[in-house]
Amino acid sequence: MLKISSLNVNGIRAAHRHGFTDWIDQTDPDIICLQELRAMEHQVPGPIQKLNYHEAYHTAEKKGYSGVGILSKQKPIRIEKGMGINWVDSEGRVMMAEFEDLYVFSIYAPSGTTGDERQELKMEFLDYFLPFAQKFLSEDKPVVMCGDYNICHKAIDIHNPKRNKNTSGFLPEEREWVTRLLQTGFEDVYRSLHEDEEDLYSWWSYRAASKERNKGWRIDYHMSCPNMLDAAEEAVIEMKWDLSDHAPVTISYNL
């Protein structure tokens, strides 16, 4: 069994203060995909570096911003950072770890919530990402692309779809993009294992006791090839942990 967790830490140092290593000790994932590190590599807290994991990070050039990482018990054969687009790569948003029988990605899509300019860049990122991701479906190994895509796909994935229909993260063109990603052959593993279940979210605003009231958004995904979906046995959003404003999305694959 291979247990893969994905978590937007909203700052790796803050997540460490909130019990990140306790979470690892208790849940014991084989691979952990991290997003929004908001730290340089040398700023990752020492106790995390002392864990029994191989570490790889792709940090942003701008300090305290963005960045992704992959921690794994098994040493990857190869690490690839970025996707060949300068502005995307300078923000540390896409990273791949290749293992003997699997490709694992940590993805942190831009947010468009700060205004039109960032929303345009988000849509540009999504346009670049689609053909980039598609290439890996034709590889000889299974692939899973974990991360914070900053989009709720369907009304079931957001607590108030009517009120949020004009909000970045739930815009028609963003939702249509997720549909296209799935049409190319990717699978939304978590939703496939929890097909019509409501109130399943992975991010909650810090405002208005959103998490306590479970008024959230499901924006964190394992997007995989069909083989990985077939192998998926259990999918959990680990809501009980308050490591950041996101919860870990953890899926066990029978590989």
Automatic annotation (TrEMBL):
<feature type="binding site">
    <location>
        <position position="246"/>
    </location>
    <ligand>
        <name>Mg(2+)</name>
    </ligand>
</feature>
<feature type="site" description="Transition state stabilizer">
    <location>
        <position position="150"/>
    </location>
</feature>
<dbReference type="InterPro" id="IPR036691">
    <property type="entry name" value="Endo/exonu/phosph_ase_sf"/>
</dbReference>
<comment type="similarity">
    <text>Belongs to the DNA repair enzymes AP/ExoA family.</text>
</comment>
<dbReference type="GO" id="GO:0003906">
    <property type="term" value="F:DNA-(apurinic or apyrimidinic site) endonuclease activity"/>
</dbReference>
<feature type="binding site">
    <location>
        <position position="148"/>
    </location>
    <ligand>
        <name>Mg(2+)</name>
    </ligand>
</feature>
<dbReference type="GO" id="GO:0046872">
    <property type="term" value="F:metal ion binding"/>
</dbReference>
<feature type="binding site">
    <location>
        <position position="245"/>
    </location>
    <ligand>
        <name>Mg(2+)</name>
    </ligand>
</feature>
<dbReference type="InterPro" id="IPR004808">
    <property type="entry name" value="AP_endonuc_1"/>
</dbReference>
<dbReference type="InterPro" id="IPR005135">
    <property type="entry name" value="Endo/exonuclease/phosphatase"/>
</dbReference>
<feature type="active site" description="Proton acceptor">
    <location>
        <position position="246"/>
    </location>
</feature>
<keyword id="KW-0464">Manganese</keyword>
<keyword id="KW-0460">Magnesium</keyword>
<protein>
    <submittedName>
        <fullName>Exodeoxyribonuclease III</fullName>
    </submittedName>
</protein>
<feature type="active site">
    <location>
        <position position="108"/>
    </location>
</feature>
<dbReference type="Pfam" id="PF03372">
    <property type="entry name" value="Exo_endo_phos"/>
</dbReference>
<keyword id="KW-0378">Hydrolase</keyword>
<feature type="active site" description="Proton donor/acceptor">
    <location>
        <position position="148"/>
    </location>
</feature>
<dbReference type="GO" id="GO:0006284">
    <property type="term" value="P:base-excision repair"/>
</dbReference>
<feature type="site" description="Important for catalytic activity">
    <location>
        <position position="220"/>
    </location>
</feature>
<feature type="binding site">
    <location>
        <position position="36"/>
    </location>
    <ligand>
        <name>Mg(2+)</name>
    </ligand>
</feature>
<keyword id="KW-0479">Metal-binding</keyword>
<feature type="binding site">
    <location>
        <position position="8"/>
    </location>
    <ligand>
        <name>Mg(2+)</name>
    </ligand>
</feature>
<dbReference type="GO" id="GO:0008311">
    <property type="term" value="F:double-stranded DNA 3'-5' DNA exonuclease activity"/>
</dbReference>
<feature type="binding site">
    <location>
        <position position="150"/>
    </location>
    <ligand>
        <name>Mg(2+)</name>
    </ligand>
</feature>
<feature type="site" description="Interaction with DNA substrate">
    <location>
        <position position="246"/>
    </location>
</feature>
<dbReference type="GO" id="GO:0008081">
    <property type="term" value="F:phosphoric diester hydrolase activity"/>
</dbReference>
<feature type="domain" description="Endonuclease/exonuclease/phosphatase">
    <location>
        <begin position="6"/>
        <end position="246"/>
    </location>
</feature>
